[in-house]
Amino acid sequence: MKLVRKTIFWLHLGIGLLAGVLVLMMSVTGVLMAFERQIVEKADGFHITATGNPLGPEAHLDGLRTAKQPPSSLGFERDATRPVVYQFGKEKAVFSDPYTGKSLGNGNTAVRGFFKFILSWHRWLGREGASQATGKAIIGIGNLMFLFLLVTGVFLWFPKRWTRSGVKAITLLQKRLKGRARDWNWHNVFGFWAAIPLLVIVISGTVISQPWATTLVFHLAGETPPVQGERKKPAPFTLPESLAGLDAAFATVKSSNPDWQSIQLQLPFAKTATFIVADSHRGRPDLRRTITVDLATSGIVKSEGFDDLGPGRQTRTWIRWLHTGEAGGLPGQTIAGLAATASAVLVWTGFALSFRRFFKKRRAAA
């Protein structure tokens, strides 16, 4: 057992030194993005005053007839102080007053650009274009190394003797310690309290970054994994001459979902229109439905919710929101942010302990 523990220790130390900088980068960027949505909404600074009844999708889209390219979706919020969102793919968003249709601009582009820059490092190591695949592969390898460090770290954390003082030393911060003793204490304590949320974050990150992991999730759920290929860009389209029926369809969706918090109209549309309805914040996929409405009759022709998905798709969808903590709302985001902070401390203290092990001894011997 002593040999096994010693072997795992040196593997833990070696891989930690090899992947430390990459793990630190993922941790810091993860901390910065923990409350991205709330920060962006605050930075946008929209102050909308309710003046009568809000406009429907027909009026909002009619004002875009002179636009070179219509949006890919049109988003409405139940909150009367929130603007209507014209989403142009993932790259651009334009906002308007829900009561007048007046454009409110693109929000705080500086803050949005900052988070876009941070996300590019978190996902692709700052690479763009064709080299994103290389950056994603490196991040994926680093994520697997981090998973190995967490598993071996949990094993090494277990004390040789379960005494009160021994357990206290690895579960509670000791303020009076300095130097190596302090780093050892911090490394154990932060690792202990952050182990479970970090395992959730890293395992979900592995599924997100590794196609084989996604395939494994579907197989474990007893479902055939979908064929993975390149996403096709939507073909350009122009708004139809008549938008009649959209407002009535929108009213049907609202009346059939009395607890709705946000509704997103998908474009393009023809004889039917597709709406994505959310009854809660975006981290709850189980409270979302996709509803298709006939524009001629205002009747619902199709309604699909989370329960209609297979077990593999359900699991994969949850994994996306577990990774950011948004599945648990603001408390979940807070836990994810604290866990990412703890992982940065683990890297720092791990480097400090290694430095003292390899360099301090040499200086003492000299």
TrEMBL record:
KW Membrane (keyword) present: yes
PANTHER family: BLL7967 PROTEIN (PTHR34219:SF3), IRON-REGULATED INNER MEMBRANE PROTEIN-RELATED (PTHR34219)
Keyword Transmembrane helix: yes
Keyword field: Membrane, Transmembrane, Transmembrane helix
UniProt cross-references to InterPro entries, sorted A to Z: PepSY-ass_TM
Signal peptide (UniProt feature, chain positions): none
Domain of life the protein comes from: Bacteria
Lineage, opening ranks: Bacteria, Pseudomonadati, Verrucomicrobiota, Verrucomicrobiia, Verrucomicrobiales
Protein name: PepSY domain-containing protein
Annotated transmembrane regions: 7-35, 137-158, 186-208, 335-355
